[in-house]
Design brief:
Number of helices: 11
Distance between the termini: 34 Å
Largest sheet: 2 strands, antiparallel
Number of strands: 2
Radius of gyration: 22 Å
Strand content: under 5%
Structural class: mainly alpha
């Protein structure tokens, strides 16, 4: 297939172009994240904290622009051809927040949200700065978005293209069915373009909520606790919408699997239940003993958020890479 050979060549060029930016972007991100962590932890440098977050956000946006360019190149090159009739079925549109880019998007959203914080800014920025720097570091170490972008997509598409060039029609048709199924049910699905961004927006708001609650607990600061609850409500809406939108897609995509037993799905529901319980418990915050109950639920909610992400990699299931 001449067209698929050309597609592989274009994809290789796009990956090489991005890899050439790996070193400068990684150095810039490490510098910005390190600077942000330093000014977040050093009280005398407090007046530089917001500027340091803005710097990290700008570098993250520069990296995201490079990733967007890669995704546009993928859409331009990654065609899907039916081997029976040699006709073009469509193109693969890979979302900007899958595989190696998950933590990167989370760090980007958290940095943007941190700049929007107004109330109690001076007390929250040290925690938010450290967490944004940590997420950026983990995104570079665990994801390697510029050096090794989208490894599963590129492996699948290369396998499909090579099978299509073989003389065995059954092999080619099997690879085509797999690639077309992934295109329709995953990459190009509306769900993948809506569900993850809603969740990452929720996660960013929940990080701010956690930072406020962590500062509120030692001195029972009701103003900070109120701020924590406000940001939790901001995150709760996209979290709920994201989960509800995911259910019909799961019914279609995993109709022959017991997807409801997946560790990732169960942990995400546990996170939603804990945030629901916390927001309801806050209604009785002034009653005897309810401060400790509410604070405990708030902390448990954020722990469930972290565990929800980790189960993707360590707990096997339909919604997992373990």
């Amino acid at each position: 297939m001449a067209d698929l050979s050309s597609a592989l060549a274009q994809l290789d060029v796009a990956r090489q172009s991005l890899s050439q930016l790996d070193l400068p972007l990684t150095v810039a991100l490490c510098f910005a994240a390190g600077l942000l962590a330093a000014v977040s932890l050093a009280a005398p440098l407090a007046h530089f904290r917001r500027s340091a977050i803005a710097l990290l956000l700008l570098v993250l946006l520069a990296g995201e622009a490079a990733l967007v360019r890669l995704h546009l190149a993928i859409y331009d090159a990654a065609i899907v051809v039916d081997p029976r009739f040699n006709n073009l079925i469509g193109r693969v549109a890979v979302p900007l927040w899958i595989e190696s880019e998950k933590l990167y998007v989370w760090a980007l959203m958290l940095s943007a949200i941190a700049l929007l914080v107004r109330r109690q800014r001076e007390r929250l920025l040290p925690i938010l700065g450290v967490l944004a720097a940590l997420l950026t570091g983990l995104a570079l170490i665990q994801g390697k978005p510029f050096a090794e972008p989208l490894p599963r997509f590129f492996a699948q598409y290369r396998g499909y293209a090579e099978a299509m060039r073989s003389a065995d029609l059954w092999t080619a048709f099997g690879a085509f069915r797999g690639m077309q199924g992934a295109r329709e049910g995953y990459y190009n699905a509306w769900y993948m373009w809506v569900h993850p961004p809603l969740l990452f927006a929720a996660y960013g708001a929940f990080v701010v909520s956690f930072a406020a609650l962590a500062r509120a607990i030692p001195r029972r600061d009701y103003e900070l606790e109120s701020l924590a609850g406000g940001w939790a409500r901001v995150g709760y809406l996209p979290l709920t919408a994201g989960i509800l939108l995911g259910i019909p897609w799961a019914l279609m995509a995993w109709k022959d699997q017991a997807w409801w037993w997946s560790g990732k799905i169960n942990m995400s529901l546990m996170m939603w239940l804990l945030y629901s319980a916390w927001l309801h418990a806050r209604l009785y915050l002034r009653r005897p003993g309810m401060w400790a109950v509410s604070a405990g639920l708030g902390l448990a909610s954020f722990v469930a958020l972290v565990l929800t992400y980790l189960t993707t990699y360590f707990v096997p299931g339909a919604h997992s890479v373990a």
